[in-house]
Specification:
Strand order of the largest sheet: 1-2-3-7-4
Number of helices: 3
Distance between the termini: 64 Å
Largest sheet: 5 strands, mixed, barrel
Number of domains: 1
Shape: extended
Order of helices and strands: HEEEHEHEEE
Structural class: alpha+beta
Radius of gyration: 20 Å
């Protein structure tokens, strides 16, 4: 009977330690797991395998700039050309759509975000619409990347 009690106490302590290690994301961010392909530090979202459930709907073709621990980023860089899933924190404001009210068939938005620099043309700047993902982990998926 004593062994059973000690076993129960040990399991309770171990589960409390695991729960304490899992951190809640900040209020302005959310943790996403996205399938796609990496090229350098740029991650392009693609359709994942059909048997994989999708957590959040992010349009395929959306780009993220990856940041995080160097060893994780180096592992991802070695997997260029392979379909992977990255997990990390992204600010909610960067995941949300462009905002504003679409008119003229969606070509014009009223009240959406404006480019910060009048000298830069956002249509020509590849990093203008890249959200930043702070990567914590990744995993390999079945499939390969198509060229974009």
């Amino acid at each position: 009977m004593r062994r059973l009690i000690w076993l129960f106490v040990g399991a309770a302590i171990a589960s409390g330690t695991v729960a304490a290690q899992e951190r809640k994301p900040p209020a302005d961010s959310e943790e996403l797991s996205l399938p796609g392909c990496a090229k350098g530090r740029t991650f392009i979202v693609s359709e994942g395998p059909e048997h994989e459930p999708r957590q959040v709907v992010v349009a395929p073709g959306r780009r993220f700039r990856l940041e995080g621990p160097k060893d994780v980023l180096d592992d991802i860089k070695r997997r260029e050309g392979q379909l992977i899933e990255v997990t990390g924190l992204v600010r909610k404001s960067q995941v949300a759509g462009p905002g504003g009210i679409p008119i003229a068939g969606g070509r014009v938005r009223i009240g959406g975000p404006m480019p910060r620099s009048p000298m830069a043309d956002p249509a020509r700047d590849p990093a203008y619409n890249q959200a930043i993902m702070d990567v914590s982990s990744w995993r390999l998926l079945n499939g390969s990347c198509t060229r974009r």
